Amino acid sequence: MYRIGNGYDVHKLVEGRKLILGGVEVPHTMGLLGHSDADVLVHAIMDAMLGALALGDIGQHFPDTDPEYSGADSMKLLAHVVELIESKGYRVCNLDSQIVAQRPKLKPYIESMRTNIAKTLGVEVDRISVKATTEEKLGFTGTEEGMKAYAVVLFEKR
Q1: CB 114 within 8 A of CB 96
Q2: Whole-Å CA distances, 60 to 39, 67, 98, 100
Q3: What distances in angstroms separate CA 79 from CA 45, 76, 110, 116, 118, one per listed residue?
Q4: 19-47 mean pLDDT
Q5: 3-state secondary structure the chain
Q6: What are 79-133's pLDDT values in tens digits?
Q7: Which residues make up each annotated binding site?
Q8: Whole-angstrom distance, CA of residue 141 vs CA of residue 12
Q9: Residue ranges for the binding site for a divalent metal cation?
């Protein structure tokens, strides 16, 4: 049996925060605002994974009202979601994801993101796709007010 889920997340760009994407610190003049490390890519991935098995969303599992998750490393939260998925008897077939950001250029960091995500999901890196695009200076991502990410994951029953 197969299950598919999609995820979406968005965060505002602000000064004074690190920019973390796919568990990689990306040099930039701004970072993403959020209760945790605000890793927009990993948040979209977690929502896709939880959605595939109708397990709610990341706000339900890691509420921003809980001080335990203040400044949390999203890769550790992802590891928790992986445990939950595995406890239901599923494993990742593949993951396709996309970051939407005007700047910085993300190409030099994509392979490290793929490697981090694959390691956390316990799969080969060739099952993980991370892409980046701009919106040609349109919308809130184009004006560099924020970033967003999309993810689609396919699971199979073990």
Answers
A1: no
A2: 17, 14, 23, 25
A3: 11, 5, 20, 11, 11
A4: 97
A5: CEEEEEEEEEEEEECCCCEEECCEEECCCCEECCCCCCCHHHHHHHHHHHHHCCCCCHHHHCCCCCHHHCCCCHHHHHHHHHHHHHHCCEEEEEEEEEEECCCCCCHHHHHHHHHHHHHHHCCCHHHEEEEEECCCCCHHHHCCCEEEEEEEEEEEEC
A6: 999 999 999 999 999 999 999 999 999 999 999 999 999 999 999 999 999 999 9
A7: 9-11, 35-36, 43, 57-59, 62-66, 133-136, 140
A8: 9
A9: 9, 11, 43
Query: Per residue in 108-147, is it b (16+ CB within 10 Å) or e — as a string?
Result: ebbebbbbbbbebbebeeebbbbebeeeeeeebbeebebb
The pLDDT of residue 104 is: 97
pTM to 2 decimal places: 0.97
